[in-house]
Amino acid sequence: MPNNCNRDKNKMTLFSKLNQIKDLRSQAKQMQNTLSQEIIEVENHGIKLKMDGNQNVLSISLPDEMAKTELEKYIPDTFNDGIKKLQKIMAEKMKSGEITMPDFKF
């Protein structure tokens, strides 16, 4: 009988872990939805970038008069500024408890 008891215990543990994974996926999806609602806009040397909190680019606008070499220089800077801005916003939201990280107990 001890063997059956261990099997049942292992099944319950596995079932419990599967439920935890399901909960984590649900929490991650909810966090993604929350992040997608956060929209930022940055401008750098006339280059305008709009991103959501998941770092998806919603739009980018380039000035007509800017040379290719300038564009190559300033586009990465504009993206980096946008990402930094989002990171600050998300850090503030996490500090305030508006966004919480899933609890990983495995």
Largest sheet: 3 strands, antiparallel
What is the topology, as strand order, of the major beta sheet? 1-2-3
- Secondary structural class: alpha+beta
Count up the helices: 2
Percent strand:
15-25%
Report the end-to-end length measured between terminal Cα atoms: 28 Å
> Tell me, what's the shape?
elongated
* Helical content (DSSP H or I, runs of 4+): 55-70%
Find the count of extended strands (DSSP E, 2+ residues): 3
Average residue-wise pLDDT: 86
Describe the structure using short key phrases.
single chain; 106 residues; alpha+beta; 2 domains; 3-stranded antiparallel β-sheet; 2 helices; 60% helix; elongated
Model description:
It is a single chain. The protein has a three-stranded antiparallel sheet with strand order 1-2-3, covered by helices on one side. The longest helix has 35 residues, at 2-36. It has 106 residues and is α+β, with helices and mostly antiparallel strands. Helices cover 60% and strands 16% of the residues. It has two helices and three strands; from the N terminus they run αβββα. It has helices spanning 2-36, 68-96; strands spanning 39-44, 47-52, 57-61. The protein folds into two domains: 1-36; 39-99.
Give me a quick take on this structure:
With 106 residues, this protein is an alpha+beta fold.
Protein topology:
Elements lengths: L1 H35 L2 E6 L2 E6 L4 E5 L6 H29 L10
Antiparallel strand pairs: 1-2, 2-3
